[in-house]
Amino acid sequence: MPTEAEAKAVLDGVIAHYTTEGAEIINVEYNETVEIVQKEGKDPEFMSVEDACSLIVTGTKEPKVYTVAKGDCLWDIAVKNGMSVDELIAMNPDSDVDHLRIGSTLNLYELKPFINVTTTERLTATERIDYNIVYEETSTLYKGEIKVKTPGVYGQRQVTKEIVRENGMVVATTDIESTVISEPSTQVNLKGTKSLSTLVGTGSFTSPMGHLEISSGFGSRGGGRHTGVDLRNPKGTPIYVVDDGVVTFAGYRGSYGNIVKVSHGNGIETWYAHCDTMSVSIGDVVKKGQQIATVGRTGRATGYHLHFEVRKNGVPQNPMNYL
Question: Does residue 85 lie in a domain region?
Answer without folding.
Answer: yes
